[in-house]
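During the no-cost extension, the postdoctoral fellow (Dr. R.K.) reprocessed legacy sequence entries with the updated structure-token encoder. One reprocessed record is reproduced below for audit purposes.
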Amino acid sequence: MSQSTDAPGSGGRPDAPDGPRVSGSKRQIAAWGSWDWGSAAFNAVMTTFVFTVYLTSTAAFGGEDYVSGMLGGALAIAGLTIALLAPITGQRSDAGGRRKLWLGVNSLLVVVLTGLCFFVYPRAEFLLLAVVLLAAANVFMEFASVNYNAMLVQISTPATIGKVSGFGWSMGYFGGIVALAIVLFGFVSPGFFGVPTEEALNIRVVAVFSAAWFAVFAIPVMFAVPEIKPVRAERISFVASYKLLFRRIRSIYRSSPHTIFFLLASAVFRDGLAAVFTFGGVIAAGTFGFALQEVIIFAIAGNVVAALGSIAGGALDDRIGPKRVIVISLVGLLIAGLAIFALGNEEYTVVGFTWSGVLTFWVFGLLLCLFVGPAQASSRAFLARLAPEGEAGELFGLYATTGRAVSFLAPALFTAFIAVFGSQRYGILGIMVVLLAGLVVLLPVKPPSRTPPAAVPAG
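Re-encoded structure tokens follow.
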């Protein structure tokens, strides 16, 4: 696609709410990436590889199938909640010039909810508390991400959006690597910090560590990236905000229909991408018999692969365009995921070589990690290329809205396939169905280079 300075959204007005579209300083980009580094403590440690594995692999909570179903149901409810509330978060933060403020407020709420997971003792009566805390934290993490993603247009240009977006995702993965390594060696095995294992204290303390990790690394962006200027001075009611939202959606559809088509397509495949990480550690433990230490070791390796994939995908994005990167990534994900489902935790002997279930998960699980990062980063970069000046938060609010409008889909199918077939392994197939649907919907969507910029009317 064209990388000229007159690409959609590239021209800057000194008084534009997002500020002139000039490349951010290295300090701003690093501070922006630091938030992703910090958020990895919640995404990788809490929801993917450690705390959810603690819930599903500890018999006291009810067993992996029951807990997986409870967790999937709670996250489905969280997705519906976000779908109802997220539509206007970006709009109102843009309008009031409070993008950075709400990034900070929602990040703080995630920190508090994460820290409260310390009180989830390994007893059945604490399972409800656990899934409620994790679901609520997911809600506020998504609200924070609306404002965080919108900042991308403040610190990049059309020629660097892919690279900067990929850098942000890679920082998240690298942050996950370091956080997981500290958790593994400091709290789990060999437990250098000496935290007792009685009542799973060493795992519950991980929740406090994760909260502190996110809090510390979320701070730099609050100082490095300036607040945006408000679009309008007066406040409007929530009802009026929804009316304005629907009016803007109609306007965007008239001026740039493929922007809406992409929002719908990405909503589906991003839900599948999120499910790969949300349920990855759960599947490793429940279906393939990984111990917690083995799950964390795999997670560290997976984050290395995902980080490298994000960097490579970001660079490729600026060369061949985001749509091609996303399509390639989704095809790779489907191949790897279906291989995990088909082979399962079985042993196969071919020409004297024994292929085990553990090897299946390592090989194809790492392939999943390789393709998830580029798909996520290029999806964000795709939309950022279409964002009109001063309305990035509005558009990324719609990004979150459409995403979370169907965010119950993958958790619900994961849960439903387990319930129907009576095995956690079939939950993998539920996630693959969502990824396939996202790919099918994406294929007819025009890439940014052939899509006019979205025109969003003033409020």
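Residues 1-17 have pLDDT under 50 and may be disordered. The chain has one domain: 26-231+247-450. The remaining legacy entries will be reprocessed before the final report is submitted.
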